[in-house]
Amino acid sequence: MTRLEAAFSLIDDCEVFADIGCDHGKLCKEVLDSGKAKKVIAADISKDSLKKARLLLSDYSDVEFRLCDGLDGGKLVADTIAICGLGGLTMIDILRYLPQSTLVLGAQDHLYELRSFLSENGYVIEKDFVIKDGKRFYDFIRAKRGKIEFDRRQLEYGVFCYTKQPVLKEKLEFLLKKISAYPPTKDNINKINTITELLTWQR
Fold first, then answer.
1. What per-residue confidence (pLDDT) applies to 47?
2. Looking at the whole model, is its pTM more than 0.85?
3. Strands (E), the chain
4. Using only C-alpha atoms, what is the Rg of the chain?
């Protein structure tokens, strides 16, 4: 599964879909072609990126192109909002307006902080999985408004880390090997113990 396929799989039918940091506009195109949304907002802070999206989506009428930073100060409203390919801390900054939308998130890093932010600010993470695209692992999350508490392991490694997932198992094994090569600090030993225990759930 590619990153584009992973993000697309988390998008349900809706009236308005927005892709924040749309770059080339490929996710918007997939949503329009599938009929999952009646209207699409392609948003990016980069003029060059938005130009690429305009070229790709030039034959579509139900598209709004918006040159803006994140959620445009809270003025960008959509039923489903996708933010993919950015760092987790950047996503937290974008989501400080706490939209009521369904969120589709593909963060590059700081997953613990992102999941914690969602949980602490009234979002339920209803889907959370990892894929391997090329040689790298990527986490994808879908969240909606609601309230469920998760433990620290779930916030760090995925809220479904106690459910068997072949790619998650591969990622945990990769992390275990990587951290085991580091100096045996207290923090690294704790991480090794946590990952080792989580791997028992993946057998």
1. 96
2. yes
3. 14-20, 37-44, 63-67, 80-86, 102-107, 123-133, 136-145
4. 18
